[in-house]
Amino acid sequence: AGRKGGHKGRARQYTSPEEIDAQLQAEKQKAREEEEQEEGGEGAAGDPKKEKKSLDSDESDEDDEDYQQKRKGVEGLIDIENPNRVIQTTKKVTQLDLDGPKELSRREREEIEKQKAKERYMKMHLAGKTEQAKADLARLAIIRKQREEAARKKEEERKAKDEAAMAGKRLQSLSLNK
Q: Which positions fall inside the Casein kinase substrate phosphoprotein PP28 domain (predicted)?
């Protein structure tokens, strides 16, 4: 009731593919000119080879791809010295060293040590040499004794009941015979 639409979608402008291509070409041209100026300032100014490359369109296409591969975005302007940054180098199958000893990371080493320690402990535990195993065995012995005593008491009670029942039956049979 009375709501108006937002202002976000009013002036949408769509860039045509031709305009995008033109912008990319302009950026590449600008980058190439800057690169030539930098190289020219260092030493041999106005190398004829470089001027020829900027005129020939066949060779410049290949250079554009190399240039874009080397520097994306702002990377070309800023020297990055990040010790944690891993630059991935692709290896061919022939270069891979499968036979050599594989370097384990700290986590993997610790995990393996933990596993081995656990196995050693379990062997000791099963042999009954650890403190916990000794305590468990003592507890089990006590429980075993208690259960034996309980079983013995039950057995005695059952025998007593049986004898009482037998005595009761004898009395009944005697009274019936009379």
A: 82-159
For residues 125 and 132, is the Cβ–Cβ distance under 8 A? yes
pLDDT digits (tens, 9 = 90+) for 83-106: 788 777 787 777 766 666 667 788
Q: Tell me the per-residue pLDDT of 110-124, one tens digit each, with 9 for 90 and over.
A: 999 999 999 999 998
pTM of the predicted structure, to 2 decimals: 0.29
Q: Enumerate the domain spans of the chain.
A: 105-177
Decide if 35 contacts 67 (C-beta within 8 A): yes
Residue burial 7-45, b: 16+ Cβ < 10 Å; e: rest = eeeeeeeeeeeeeeeeeeeeebeeebeeebeeeeeeeee
Specify whether the CB–CB gap between 65 and 101 falls below 8 A. no
Encoded amino acid at 39, one letter: E
